[in-house]
Structures are given as C-alpha cells and as structure tokens.
Design goal:
The protein is an alpha+beta fold and about 240 residues long. The protein has helices spanning about 5-30, 40-55; strands at about 60-65, 80-85, 90-100, 105-125, 140-145, 165, 180, 185, 190-195, 200-210, 210-215, 215-220, 225-235, 235-240.
Length: about 240
C-alpha cells in the first residue's frame, strides 16, 4: 500500500471529526437540568403571608419563621403559595404550609412563632355570674396575647354592658365566651310584637315564651293564642319583618 502513514493520518482525522460531531449532537439533544427551588425564598413567602394575616391584630407583632430544611430538593415553583393548615393558630407557636401548583406540585410545612404584645382586659374586681359589667369592673394590662387562650377581649366596648356568663376572679383575663349579651326579653314578661312589611306596620301585645339577648330570636304568644317568632330588641320588643 502506497503512502500508508498518510492514509492512517487521514483516517484518524476523520474519526476525530466524527467524534466531535457526535459529542456536539449529544450536547444539543441532552435535556436541560431541571432548576431547583430557592429555599430561603420560601421562608420569605411564609413571613410575608404572616405579616398580611396579622396586620389587623392590635399591638406590637414579632414574626419568626424557621429556615426551610436545607436537605429538601424541590422543583422550582412559578408562584409558591402560603396557607394556614387546618387547626393551626395565627399567633404563638404555629405551622405554615407552602404549596406549589405548577410546574411540579409539592407541599411543605415550616414552623413559626408569632408574638403579639398588646393591651387586654382583666376583671378589676370579682365578677358574679349574671352580673352586668360596668366600666369600673374591668382594667387594662399589657402582655403577650399568644400566651393566652383564644378569644381574649382587647377593647372595653366588647365587655361593658354585657353580662358575666360565669363567676370570674379579679385579675382573670376576660374572654368572649365568658360574657354574654344582656337579656332584653325575659320568659313570661309582656312584650310588644311589631310586624313590618311593605307599606304597613302592625303592633300587638304578647307574652314572651323564651329568654333572648338583643338580636336573638325569641318566641311569644299573642292574646289570640298565636305563637310568633321575632328578633328581640331593647325595651321588650319582638320585631317581625316580612
């Protein structure tokens, strides 16, 4: 064979070109590596969610969200959404959920602590069951609402004029469920039933069959023996709207 070295040299060059072409084709057809979610960004999503949810709470609010577990490997999310899991509290030690809908669905949970320092009401004196609350019966103190039960009263208007549903010791924080609205209709008392409709109003006397606070439904029996239901109003009135 003539020029054996030249032939071998040309063959080697051809093989090298072919290999480069295959590598280029492989690089062009190889799928892109999927992007991973930025975990610190998820912590910011949870913090912003809690800021929005607690914006209407009284007092000074401090939010502390735990870092997302660095061992997690999540697909990048277009718009992560934070939410409150069922049964979770808005303040105190709580849990926040973060979910992704697209392109790859996933859900994680992070722990957080929300501290709310605010004024709230306590009984200034011992309160007896059935006692109507006056302005002198309550006083303000300042503390961490997240360390107290739900339903703590923070404004005098929520307490003054209402009735103690149970006996309360002095210094005890007042809760919404420890007070009830004052009764405006007592069972057995005479009441006036006012029926309102388009272009007419009828008033008749009756006797209350049930107790009711203002705004509650009550029943009464008229002189003719008819049992009617209406909304209890101050002054012993049952209002019926047609």
């Amino acid at each position: 064979m003539k020029y054996p070295f030249r032939v071998l040299r040309h063959a080697a060059a051809a093989l090298a070109l072919l290999a480069c072409g295959l590598q280029g084709a492989s690089a062009q057809t190889a799928p892109d590596t999927p992007q991973r979610q930025d975990l610190p960004a998820l912590k910011q999503v949870a913090e912003q969610f809690l800021k929005t949810q607690t914006s209407g709470l009284p007092g000074s609010i401090t939010i502390d969200v735990d870092p997302v577990d660095s061992r997690l490997s999540l697909a990048a999310c277009v718009e992560p959404q934070a939410f409150m899991p069922n049964g979770a509290r808005l303040w105190g030690k709580t849990t926040i959920g973060i979910k992704c809908v697209a392109p790859s669905p996933w859900t994680i949970y992070v722990r957080a602590n929300v501290q709310v320092i605010s004024d709230y009401l306590v009984a200034a004196v011992p309160l007896a069951q059935g006692q109507t609350i006056g302005a002198a019966d309550v006083t303000r103190v300042r503390g961490d609402l997240s360390a107290l039960p739900n339903g703590i009263i923070t404004n005098e208007s929520q307490a003054v004029g209402r009735v103690a549903a149970m006996s309360v010791r002095a210094g005890t924080p007042l809760r919404m469920d420890s007070l009830r609205n004052q009764r405006v209709v007592q069972q057995g008392q005479p009441v006036r039933v006012i029926s309102n409709g388009p272009g007419f109003q009828i008033s008749t006397e009756a006797r209350a069959l049930t107790n009711a606070s203002e705004g509650q439904m009550a029943q009464a029996r008229t002189a003719a023996g008819q049992v009617v239901s209406g909304i209890a109003k101050a002054g012993g009135i049952l209002e019926i709207n047609y």
